[in-house]
Fold this sequence. Notes:
By secondary structure, the protein is an all-alpha fold.
Amino acid sequence: MFSPLRNRAYRHLFIAQVAALLGTGMATVALGLLAHDLAGASAGEILGAVLSIKMVAYIGVAPFASALATKLPRKTLLVSLDVVRALVAVALPFVREPWQVYGLMTVLYIASAAFTPAFQAMIPDLLEDEAEYTKALSLSRLASDLESVASPVLAAILLSVISFNDLFLGTALGFVLSAGFVVTAVLPPVSSAQQLPFSQRLTGGLRLFALTPRLRGLLAVSLAEAAGGAMVFINTVVLVRSNFGMSNQASAWALAVFGLGSMSAALVLPRVLEKVTDRRAMVAGAFLMTGVLLAGAFTAKSYPALLALWLVMGFGYSLTLTPAGRALRRSASAADRPALFAAQFALSHACWLIAYPVAGLVSAQANPSAAFLVLAGLCGLGAILGLVIWPANDPENLPHTHDDLPAEHPHLANGQDGAHAHPVVIDGQHKRWPKA
């Protein structure tokens, strides 16, 4: 899994990614505390708006950023975006009004939305071997999962000696380190494959989602994942600071417990997935989060109870998230895989765009218990849709026939009467999902 790190250029880019993720994670903790400092019990409304801005930026800006990346020197683009993000982080401790938070975070998220596809577009050129490229994708996901644990823990430790505003300086340092490692990486020129408009690749991925049953089920589970995660990321600081009257440090530790639950599931899942299907694991995680949300409406009355809920929530969250990459790899050829990952990026963020405002507005206008219940309904809807849409019988080799191909067609060489079995993806030979 770690063999791509032998490539010096990729290793520097990966370290840059980790540094930026740690900085972003500390900003997430500090932003929640800043929102509470500005709005008290209504902090969830500010956080919901900020994270909705993030989703809009990711969905709207990312598809166009790839085209921009082909027109500018890669290193200049990435370093410039890191500098912009660092400057925003330095400015955040000085804000006094919610609209200032919205403006600065809009700039930061637009820069991040441009950085991510530009970064991802270079990896296939650095790692031309398909197996190494797949490992690199897994490493990126692992880095994101570790960040969800490491950043809150680091923030909790730092908050024992500094104020939450100083965490933004740590965020700026993360982006500066990211820029430094990008500068030292030897980046390849833009490949001819990258001259295709990103929108075409994104459209191809959306077509795969529309025509592949397991991908439609995966999207439904993504809705459940967003509902559970939004409750944690939006309302942890509201519950800890306003309901329980505890410290900023306690808020960070609560987020760390959620990350610990997520990592626990990630550690046991490889063995579990040898015995159960991706569908079963992901749908089970969605129902587990639904149960936690329902329970939270009535039991999240103390800090220890919240920690227990968040530990289980993190476990369910990872159950829905970790196997997704396996389902995506099964559902596209190597040539179509970048388009599929791009579509997953856009569609999953669209789910968060629904969940974040719900979590923030319901909590602010009613109370966190009402947010628990509403998000439980949204999470349960995603779980049920995933169970119904994703076929229970989803074999690796799908037996099917080709009525549209002549008997002598090479694709049918090993079949009898046009019937055969193999892993199916939507492609030139399978323009629709075949019937068994």
